[in-house]
Amino acid sequence: MKSLKLILAIFVATGMLFSSCSKEETNEPAGNEEMGSISIGAILNDLVDDNRQAISDEIPACSDDTPMYAWVVLTHELGTEDVVMPILFDGETYFTDYDEDLEISIPVDQTTTAVSLTTFMVYAEEPGEGVSPIWVAPTDEGEYKNFVNDALPINFDLRAGSKKYLDVEVLCFDDREVNLYGYQFFDLIPIELYKFCVFANYCTDNGRHYTANYNVNIDYIREGEDDINLYTNKSPETGNTEDDNSGDWYAEPLCLAIPSPMYDELDTDNYLRVTVTLAEWDDNYGSPEPEEPEVIYLSWNDVQSYFGDNDTIDYEHIFFNCGDDPILDCPVTEEDTDGDCVPNEDDLCEGYDDDEDMDEDGVPDGCDQCPEEAGDPLDGGCPIDDCTGDADSDGLNDCEDECPYQAGPESNNGCPEDGGDTCQTAYMEGDTELNTLANSNRWGWAEHYQIDTDGTNKTFDIWAGAGQNDTSKGDQIGTAEISVDDDEITLEITLNPGVSLNDLHINLSENAPSGNDVFAPGQYNLNDEVDVNTLTYTWERGYSEDFYIIIHAVACY
Q1: CB 172 within 8 Å of CB 61
Q2: Which PROSITE patterns does the UniProt record give (predicted)?
Q3: In contact, 170 and 55? CB cutoff 8 Å
Q4: Range with the lowest mean pLDDT among 27-36, 56-65, 161-170, 339-348?
Q5: In which domain, by residue range, is 545 found?
Q6: Which helix (H) or strand (E) holds 549?
Q7: Phi, psi angles (nearest 5°) of residue 334
């Protein structure tokens, strides 16, 4: 099964109607002359979905329009405040204008009053009939209550003579990064959702395959905390290719929105648990004997492994009662999270049975990009003539390399030079092994450089010939020093005496690399800016403080 990469999340366009946007006329009890004042700030969260497919009637579609008005509904002991207030812009920051309706009277003989915020919406134009909001605070009855800290209503006490500051998280669906600017009342907390898809087969005892119907539960798991249920009993859309059910029964892949890690989990930490349970399907295969649910644990690296190039995504393929079922009968434990009877530390293909290898090329089917055609483990399990990678990591595509299994300089068509120095593939040692990023058996490392943990300056070893990331097999041939100064990243490579480079390839990205960015050094994104005779570089970046860097070379010594 291929594991490809796609960024997912979800756009929803929904019009929201409301009646009056002014203070309601009520027969209020007498109040004190003392007042309490409320200021409301909104924390804007956008969710991503390329398909713009609605999955909730709560959240509107994001737009590029400028926030201009906020509609707020408050209830308190003396009545209800239904207020539309302008949003201002001071050249840098958006903020709500002062509004006297948010001064709340305190009941007689009391110093405080109970207040409940029940509605908060943001508009690009003055609200009216046919005008939809661009941001909305979700309610605790809605599907997205778990994606904010405080869903509406928000209840609090307001004291006479005080100015209450209140943050409200509001959501919309957007299909690109939107630069929104907060003000003294607003804090930006981006929350992105990504697509995760499941497809399943059911097999009878005689081995006949059927498209399966199933139920999916997804839970966000936190160590030492209660699980957060994101989805319960979600099922795929099923049907028949003919109106009279005389054709083929089918099920669409079930795709659901999932978050990236939200509680400071590492990229390698399991944070989602997906439980898939076989369901009956009378018209297709009837009511089979109960099957044990399939349980899948996902880290952020696992989620990204499904994403591919050209806006594609692969699904998790589940097999019930099938001979090629990737999960055996071993129990799922912390030491063997995929239940394939192989401890995690020895797993060749995490999440799948290492013994399932149809083409017998040494790459388990679950991680083999060409599972029915024998290939090279260093080329993703595909035949070398598929031109899908660089088996010897010398920077030349396998179709152009005259010695695809022996590293050599480009000047010698990828072959070692007779009588010359020993030339070997080399990588800077980082905190992330490449084979965890793209389900490939390629050795090497990427470094997820994080200012908070790595500081603004750190030195890493460069290893040559360290197959399977085993440094005891290789030679330490130099170091790479990385320095960060504001928006500049500086790299300085220092080689040991007698070491030279025949090739140098560098990939620098904000997000974790995948696909060819992992197993094809010849396609790294900074190759046009580097050469073997220059060992010091400075680049500017326009993203967050964290970044990924891969340094690959062919070192001769």
Answers
A1: yes
A2: PROKAR_LIPOPROTEIN
A3: no
A4: 27-36
A5: 423-556
A6: strand 547-556
A7: -65, -30
